[in-house]
Design goal:
single chain; OB fold (Dihydrolipoamide Acetyltransferase, E2P); 5-stranded mixed β-barrel; two-stranded antiparallel ribbon; 5 helices; disordered N terminus
Length: about 180
């Protein structure tokens, strides 16, 4: 009897984990929060994810074949805020987390982003890394990745964002933000 109860509990737990919401982020979009996002963001633009970037070319090829990724080149179609030009390509870098936004390649988005100035490799053998500030992202024990990202940042803009700062073209919130912010 006890064994059956353990099996049922395991199955129920597994089912709830699988069917539950995969994102731990909870995004609120009141007027006050949206205005704060607009004020604090370094960049707000509309554009399309055009390809992935990673220091391992096999990963880039696999992600491009799959048609999506979280660290991507973006082509800016319309700049709402920031120091860039329409047509310019920028990089979106996101640290792995439950708030990471997966972008479908060639799909249009409104992106609220924050500039990253540099990347730093730190030793994280015994403790987790300290939280990164927006200007410098700390990466554990991966000098190759840090060199690759610093090279990218010296050759163009690198921004970070997350699932709460990205809006898919054609959605109600995208249209509302475009109406409110695109005409200022």
């Amino acid at each position: 009897m006890f064994t059956k109860m353990v099996q049922y509990t395991f199955l129920l737990s597994t089912f709830l984990l699988i069917t539950g919401n995969a994102h731990a982020c909870e995004c609120e979009y009141s007027d006050e929060i949206l205005n704060e996002l607009k004020q604090t963001a370094d960049f707000i633009f509309i554009g399309s994810a055009v390809s992935n970037f990673h220091y391992n070319t096999e990963i880039v090829e696999a992600q491009n074949t799959a048609g999506y990724g979280s660290n991507v080149f973006f082509k800016i179609d319309d700049l709402i805020k920031g120091d860039a030009e329409a047509g310019q390509n920028i990089f979106i870098y996101q640290e792995s987390s439950s708030c990471e936004q997966d972008f479908v390649l060639n799909k249009k988005y409104l992106v609220i982003g924050y500039s990253i100035k540099s990347f730093e490799s730190i030793d994280c053998q015994s403790v987790p890394p300290p939280p990164s500030d927006i200007d410098t992202v700390k990466i554990c024990n991966d000098l190759e990745k840090v060199r690759f990202l610093n090279n990218k940042s010296s050759n163009g803009l690198i921004l970070t964002t997350n699932v709460c700062g990205v809006f898919v073209a054609g959605t109600d919130l995208f249209n509302e933000l475009l109406s409110a912010w695109g005409n200022e």
